[in-house]
Write a structure and sequence with these properties.
binds ligand AR6, about 300 residues, 11 helices, 8 strands, Leucine Aminopeptidase, subunit E, domain 1, alpha/beta
């Protein structure tokens, strides 16, 4: 069976990506792209997990309600993701930004998105990281995520995609930034403020940031289904290959076994299962990418008559 992975090629970079094409936590756990932690910091929540997504991509190509820019306090553009967003949005974005009178660090403001495929841009001003004052840096970074979420909800946005604020030019360590971001989103949802939000996407560009999210997401959004890892029966193996008669690409994800909430172990599993775990580990780190089940050969998806 070919690997259940679809990699964006550079030619697809210019194609807007809808939220439906981005993997949410339940699928990432099923595909073993996320590993459950032995002692998560929060209890599992299936409704939360269904809203949280992780992708490595150019954020300017996401077709979501709002994307979050890592801006500076002038709000007049700059390098990094800020530059990419202004380039893709066109000159009207900076015209609107000029009317906003800047923005404090740890705060955010919202504008239209102009030529971008999203509806709104939230401009968040992250802190320059100071290793001698990490608590202050964290407070300001959390403020960016909190205010961005509030602006999204207040403006009727159904989905929001965050860039990894402050982890580039502003020097915030990726692990600490990911933990603060994920923790603040979890708190926001736990407090019941995210009712109108259907999706919160963490959009990374570099592998170091994606790795940090892969490490901390299971701490704050552990898998919600407790399902023992069953040895792959012949029936399950057949379904995973799409030979069960009714299989379509989108239904194959549902047929994958649920992730356990304990750390998976290969001990006691038959060799066939071990091979599947190894395959998941072997997924390439090529970027940008989207994990999906579409890459199953067509002939395997046709009903056998
Ligand atoms: N899509 C998604 N993420 C991106 C993209 C992109 N197209 N490009 C870069 N990133 P940075 P900061 C990631 O430096 O650290 C600007 O000049 C990048 O890999 O853009 O908050 C502003 O005007 C990193 O993980 O923002 C400010 O002056 C993340 O975006 C200053 O930089 C943030 O990196 C802000 O620095």
């Amino acid at each position: 069976m070919r690997r259940l992975l679809h990699t964006y090629t550079s030619s697809m970079m210019s194609t807007p990506v809808p939220f439906s094409d981005i993997s949410t936590l339940p699928l990432l756990y099923k595909l073993r792209k996320l590993t459950p932690q032995a002692a998560p910091a929060h209890p599992p929540s299936a409704p939360h997990n269904a809203k949280i997504a992780l992708v490595r991509h150019d954020i300017t190509q996401l077709r979501v309600s709002a994307i979050v820019n890592a801006a500076n306090s002038s709000l007049l553009g700059g390098g990094g993701v800020d530059g990419a967003i202004h380039r893709a949005a066109g000159p009207d974005l900076v015209k609107e930004c000029r009317t906003l009178d800047g923005c404090d660090t740890g705060d955010a403001k919202i504008t239209s998105a102009y030529d971008l495929p999203c509806d709104k841009v939230v401009h968040a001003v992250g802190p320059v990281y100071h290793s001698d004052k990490p608590e202050r840096s964290e407070q300001l970074l959390r403020g960016c995520y909190r205010k961005s979420l509030e602006l999204a909800v207040g403006n009727g946005c159904k989905s929001i995609a965050f860039s990894a604020i402050s982890t580039g030019i502003y020097g915030y360590p990726s692990d600490d930034a990911a933990e603060a971001a994920i923790s603040e989103v979890r708190n926001f949802l736990d407090e019941g403020h995210g009712e109108g939000l259907e999706a919160v996407v963490f959009c990374n560009f570099l592998e170091k940031d994606e790795r940090a999210y892969q490490e901390y997401l299971p701490m704050y959004f552990p898998p919600a289904e407790e399902t023992a890892m069953k040895p792959a029966s012949e029936e399950t193996a057949s379904e995973m290959k799409g030979t069960g008669g009714e299989s379509a690409p989108e239904t194959l994800a549902d047929k994958l076994p649920d992730a356990p909430i304990t750390v998976p172990s290969e001990e006691g599993l038959p060799d066939a299962k071990k091979v599947k775990l190894d395959e998941a580990d072997d997924m390439p780190a090529a970027s940008p990418r989207k994990v999906t089940v579409e890459d199953v050969p067509d002939e395997e998806l046709k009903p056998k008559v």
